[in-house]
Amino acid sequence: MAKPFRIQDIDDTQAPLLDHLIELRTRLLRALFAFGIAFAICFYFADHIFAFLVRPLTEAFPPGQGKLIYTKLYEAFFVEVKIAIFAAFFVSFPIIANQIWAFVAPGLYAKEKRAFLPFLIATPVLFTMGAALAYYVVMPTAFHFFLGFEGQKGGLKLEALPGTGDYLALVMQFILAFGISFLLPVLLMLLNRAGIITRAQTVGARRYAVVGIFIVAAVATPPDVISQLLLAVPLLMLFEGTLILMWFTERSDAREKAREEASQSAVAE
């Protein structure tokens, strides 16, 4: 009798290639359909989404003084399209990820499924944490810094008049840079679980990792020291936290391997 919530081992069926291609097409169509529905909904609420994204800039300006401009007649429309695409991906991601998992899972052993599931769950959580840090901490700080250059320069008034397209590109850069960078633990743990790197090797490469983190922070964020530090410091903390997690997982794997060897030797005797 099958137990509920039991992860099944690899499927015994040997479906022909055509069946796999048909299933892949079905999964892709479902993912595209979910994205299309999400895009339509997000496009309808594009004004509300943009109002949410523009709030850090609104609060950085003095009350009642901020404004956004567009210099091309079609720019505002395409900004809303980009907002809808950007938001639709996040809205439809759970369904897209579910379709990917449903296609890949039958080819995995039960042990591999149990090992892979935590990474599937951790990915959106860590990305959301990075995006939230960018929106609630980094963007307000950076915008206050950028707007600090307003004033009188050589007898002329220097005023910030950000364009809607430029602002959206900057916001997307912040959110994607922090969200993707926060997936560093997932990448390191996947490499570790796959046997490509060990904790000892990662510790030995710490100095290079620190340099690499600061390079990524300098490239991924706008060219100001504050944004770079606000990305580099959390990444360093995530890197060190991943080393601790590797220590626990490698100890657990060693104990499990020792138990298996002991049981095998007992059977052989």
Kindly describe this structure.
The chain has 269 residues and is mostly helical. The protein is 75% helix and 2% strand. It has ten helices and two strands. The longest helix has 44 residues, at 225-268. It is flat and about 95 Å long.
Indicate the mean pLDDT.
85
Radius of gyration: 24 Å
How are the strands ordered across the major sheet? 1-2
Unreliable sequence segments: none
Principal-axis shape equals flat
The H/E string reads HHHHHEEHHHHH
State the helicity in percent bands: over 70%
Q: Could you give the count of β-strands?
A: 2
- Helical/strand content category: mainly alpha
Strand content: under 5%
Main β-sheet, in a few words?
2 strands, antiparallel
Number of helices: 10
Determine the N-to-C terminus distance.
33 Å
Concise description?
The chain is 75% helix and 2% strand.
Blueprint (SSEs and pairs):
Elements: H1 17-44, H2 46-53, H3 55-60, H4 75-104, H5 110-147, E1 151-153, E2 156-158, H6 164-181, H7 184-193, H8 199-204, H9 206-220, H10 225-268
Antiparallel strand pairs: 1-2
Helix pairs in contact: 1-4, 2-4, 4-6, 5-6, 5-7, 5-10, 7-10, 9-10
Core attributes:
269 residues; two-stranded antiparallel sheet; 75% helix
